[in-house]
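Translate sequence into structure tokens.
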Amino acid sequence: MLKRATQASPDFDPVPTLLHHLQTGDDVIRTDAVRALAVQAPGDERVRLALIGALLDEDPDVRSDAMDALPQFAQPEDADRIRENLIGDPVREVKLAAIELLADLDDKASVPLLRRLALSRCEDEVAWEDEIGLWDEWLEIQTAAIRALGRLGAKEAIEDILCARDDEYGQNLDLPICEALSGMGEAGMVWLLAMAQTEGGLPRKRALEAMAKLDADALRPHLDFLLGDDNAEVRRLALPLLAADDDRAGYLALKDADPALRAAALAHAAPARPELAVSALSDPEPPVQAAALDHLQLPLSPELAEVLSANMQAWLLTDHGVLASAVARNWVRLIDGATPEPLEMLLRNGDQPLDARIAAIEALDALQDEGATERLVDLLTNPAQQVRMVALTCLVARADKGDDIALDALEAAATNSLIAPEPAAVPAPLPDGDEVPRLRIDAEGQITTTSEEAGPAPMSTLEAIQINRLAKPESTEGGKDATGPDDSKGNKGNKGKRRRSVEGPAEIGEDLARVSLGLISTLVSDRIGVVIRTMTEVGQDTLRTAAYQALAARIDAGLANEADLPRLRTGLMDRLERVRGLCARLAVAYPALHPALAQRMDDPDALVRAQVVAVLEDPEALGAALGDPDARVRAAALTRLAADLDASTDKDAAAALLKPLLSAEAIETLALALTLSPMLRAEALARLAEEALPKRRQHVLLQAFAGGMAGQS
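Result follows.
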């Protein structure tokens, strides 16, 4: 049964006035009144009776809107009237809403009619609009009737809906029929199973989807039947019904013919039976082996640990899918004394899937050995953006814990000086005491930080890469240099490792800076604040925008600095709307910036103007903002004016404020006014009750009381 909504508050009763317009207005006004009643008085008994009466209105739009509004009001005793509209009202929208509402009311008396509609158009009983488009209308009604029968649990209708499915002239009804069968208890379940077992393609898929949505109680009586089915997808339906320690779950994990089902069953059962994961390591299918690795429980026996270590290293070399990803994911967890070299080898293999490479990065981060941070820094020049992103994320976590090398790397990445010889745009000089150490990677691959006092800076990263590449040109065959054997074998950490050429270092550098600025924004470090402020001065639009976004995130996180204010003031005049909008939003919280913000009332960006309204003090300026072409600016001005109005309780002021809103016919803004201010709502209702109010004003006010949902007509 439908729930009744709360009655309108006693101090504001719009129902009599709205009912007056429903009873006396023309068809447009009556439609407006129906919508307004539904919004303003949900659950009101007076409205319920009026809407039931409106189902007989001569205008189809009024009848349709009344039926759409009734779910908030209808009671079981209204079902007969609603059913009469289903039969006698030719309008399709009315019929569809009536079918839905009858199902909501759980009206069993409608089942015979719905059964007939599932089979035919019942032209001798049911009214239809015309012959044009009749077939499409009938299909919609038929589909709605079938779904309603399922919601009503009408088991007696199973034969009817199956006959409708078999109609050679009919449409594909598999989706609504499977949904209906799933609501018809045991009898419907039998037919869904039959479809899943005997049919293929889309019908079987629909049946399986419908069964998967059923709760365990509906499927449990068929457990043995499901487990014995030849179709793996049917057997999979049984898996959630089995306890983790059930032998049948173990059988599915180790013996089922379908690898995907074995992997799923292993994930289900291994937490309770860890021996299953050990046995599944010898499974011939990589997805099952991957699931086994994920569910191995420590400690491992010495024999298993030794064999597993060798196998995992081999899998890293031979697999290029889920197994390699699982090995990387579990490398540190399962291998005692795990070393980074196999993971680095995986990362250098461009044939490995992205999931495996990302898992390898996370594993390298988890090693926490002496060279862990340097390895992550080395990945910042990787051509794959996702790899760079994961490496950056790991470095941010390290910097947050006080890792100075990680912090240096992030500063260099954010200022676009990690892999480029010069920044993309020269930032303004830093204030005294705000010098940022520059991170460099020297020709030996070592990370250092330099400052002006430290003397001449060593080569930049890009220079080191270029010199290394010139000295050792790479071949595309076999991973060996053209001038000598592959020198990458046997190297430890970063020392002596041959650097790979980077395609498009400028593009990678800019992307790295943009992403870095977003990731470092909330690091608690004065140095990061300096970097972000510095990057708000660059000429490159993408980087400058990213820097202002980072500055906004930093301020929102409570890390604001007095030095941020000049940057916000400058940002209010930026050529980019996105930057000006960010700075305008932030400037509202700083009175010192209000004069600069107030000067942007003519800004072409509505978001900026909406923020300006928040700091305006002149009532005339606020009133002028009500005429802004953008609804967001008008809403901002109205919010302030409405608050001042209710604080003053001045009825004349309410009338004065309502007048321009009515004249402008900005229905959405007027609707907002009615929600913001009780005084404006009362004044609008008083205007609506005026006998001589022009029809256009009636329409505008009724649509505002309806929440502006229909807009202007």
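Note: The longest helix spans residues 134-151.
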